[in-house]
Structure formats: structure tokens, C-alpha cells
Write a structure and sequence with these properties.
Largest sheet: none
Structural class: mainly alpha
Strand content: under 5%
Radius of gyration: 21 Å
Distance between the termini: 28 Å
Order of helices and strands: HH
Shape: rod-shaped
Number of strands: 0
Helix content: over 70%
């Protein structure tokens, strides 16, 4: 019976593995997107310090970047909540 069970469940296990790989790829994408935004913020602060942009331009750009970063962190927190309830 054990061999028959393995044969019958093999397609589902393979499909589950594919979904896990997709989830891992999405998580890596979110992490790299967050790091890119942090890099943009550092560059923005540097431009302000070197007087390449005005305070108003800085505030506008900073707000956009921080909003995007908040969205990413909210998605990460939502994903963590879902994984806690799944396990």
C-alpha cells in the first residue's frame, strides 16, 4: 500500500514543490525591491546634503519612497501572518 500511496500522491507533492519555489522567488523579489528603495533613500539624503535638490523636492521624493517601503513591509507582515496560521 505504501508504494501505491506514493505513486498517487506524487503529482500533488510535485505541485506543492512548484508553489514553494514560486513563493521563494516572490519573497526574494520583495527583499530586493526593499533594498533598492533603501538605496534610493540614501542617495536622496546625499543629494540633499550636497544641495543638489531643495528641501521641498527632498520631502516629496522621500514621501513616495517611504510609502513604497511601507507597502512592502506591510506585505511582508501579511505574509508572515499567513505562514504562522498555515503552520
Amino acid at each position: 500500500m505504501l508504494v501505491i500511496d506514493n505513486i498517487l500522491t506524487f503529482p500533488m507533492r510535485g505541485l506543492l514543490r512548484v508553489f514553494r519555489e514560486i513563493q521563494k522567488a516572490v519573497e526574494q523579489e520583495y527583499e530586493s525591491e526593499g533594498e533598492a528603495i533603501r538605496t534610493e533613500l540614501r542617495e536622496l539624503y546625499m543629494r540633499l546634503e550636497t544641495n543638489q535638490i531643495t528641501e521641498k523636492e527632498f520631502d516629496e521624493a522621500e514621501k513616495v519612497l517611504l510609502d513604497r517601503l511601507d507597502q512592502i513591509e506591510a506585505r511582508d507582515a501579511g505574509a508572515d501572518d499567513e505562514s504562522d496560521t498555515d503552520g
